[in-house]
Amino acid sequence: MNPAAIQADLAQLVETLSAVGTPLQALLPLLAAVLVALAVVPAWRGWLGTAVSASAALLVVGQLVLIWFHWRLYEIAVVVSPETGGVVGRIAIPLWVESVKLYVWALLLAVMAVLIRRHRQELLPGVAILLAALMAAAALWNEPFTEPLPIFFGQYLGYLSAMASGDPGVMFGAYQGMESARQFYYNTIYMWVHPPALFFSYAAFAISFVATIEMIRARHSAFETTAYRWARLGYLPLTAGMLLGFPWAIIAWPGESWWWSAKVNMSIMMWLAYTALLHARLYLRRPSMWRWVAGISVAAFVVLLLTYFSTYFVPGAHTV
Amino acid sequence: MTALARLKNWDYLLTVATVALLGSLGVQSFLGTAYVWWATYSVPGFQAIGYRDFIWWMNAIAAPQVVALVVLMGLCVPKRLLDRGTLIAVSAVMLVAGLAAWVATGSLATGLAVYLALAGLIQAAVVAITVAGARGPSYLTEGRLVKIGSGLLHLGFIAFAFVVVALQRSTFMLPAFWAATALTLVGTLLTFYASRFAWRGRVRVPIDRGLAEE
Fold first, then answer.
1. How many CB atoms lie under 10 A from the CB of residue A278?
2. Burial (CB count within 10 angstroms: exposed 0-12, middle 13-18, buried 19+), residue A222
3. Hey, which of A84, A105, B94, B99 has its CA 20 to 30 A from B79?
4. Nearest to A282 among B23, B140, B208 (CB)
5. Is A195 within 8 Å of A97 (Cβ atoms)?
6. Does ipTM surpass 0.85 in this model?
7. B55/A contact by beta carbon, under 8 A
8. What is the tens place of the pLDDT at every residue in A166-184?
């Protein structure tokens, strides 16, 4: 292992990503502003579908760049045992951690927005505003192309420095931390299934939320059906993703009280809210029940947002 | 009130109670998270010392709600097979069996496990009878595939609760977990998308419903 060579390769890779991605990152908030303008001004809405498709295309192009970046990282970032000097494994960083989380959420919502068929005209303005918020936040806050994966790079560069130090104690400590992150976080199969399932559900719930708002505004049952269809599309991956988090937590956090950590706590609350929504909906024909269904649906989406942002603000096992 | 109306009202009450309990646990989760947020920045040494107390309190407050939810699930499961009188008797027997196991072993987890095992057996019977197409199980949903899906997903949740309560340190944890997950997901798929799996023209599952007239 040559830590200096790896470090140089990583620096070169980040520089290339920044060069390719900076224009894309700059375009995202601009396109977000266009989406908001088209959604807000009724006379311009004829262009909204095109703008949403263009946003989806831009996000897909960016995603291809990020896939290439992560693939190159996989080739470069190896973990070497200080005992044997042999390569223990490579680090496969998923496309939904740290600086790319909001980006992948925006990408999924954009693709779903393109695919909306039922009530497209009515839903597209609301969905476009949510998409614009996600795109702007992804570009300006997460900066996936210019400030990629800060936590990973912090740990991995620290590991490389430790390996270069020649001090066995320092090397072994850094190796343990890095190998543990590789095995139980980056490379575990759960990491490759649990978060994308949740992000897929978040995107579907966003459209369900917009349809619920339309139902409240227009008081028409057809929007409730649309809201329900998107909610049930989101509920399946939400349930799958949360279930898959359980054995992972037991393996990765043995002996820890992880179930009351902020993100788990809020995620359970979100699942409970959507479960309550689907139960309440069984009685939609009862007088005034639609108000309860609408209320629970709006509350569930607010909880979804709190769940997502709790990882940034509330300390706990999922904190970034 | 007709028998059907009584049954629907009973179903409604159970659903309201379920939603209320889910909401209550949700509120606890929210308040717990807000408290951790506040305490981390306001109470010196909270993460090092206070967090253990927080976990203890959260467990203590959640425990009766989770038990009530499990009991409610126990009531919901045989409701598809039994009339209300028999249902209450069966539920009482299940509850007594769970309590007896708790008292005998001194472990709440064992009591819950016994209760869940009994609920799981009844739910498995409900699913088997529904699959066989026999008359008897009553569902809110329409269409046989939807009913099978509903039965399977509830069986999956009972199995998952059993894994959490009884099998966390067992070698059977992962196989049982995957079985519970498969049941839940297949059940959810059937419940939501039965009409897509059914032969066109043979099974119709109503999806569109109008909002209630005020």
1. 18
2. middle
3. B99
4. B140
5. yes
6. no
7. yes
8. 888 899 999 999 999 999 8
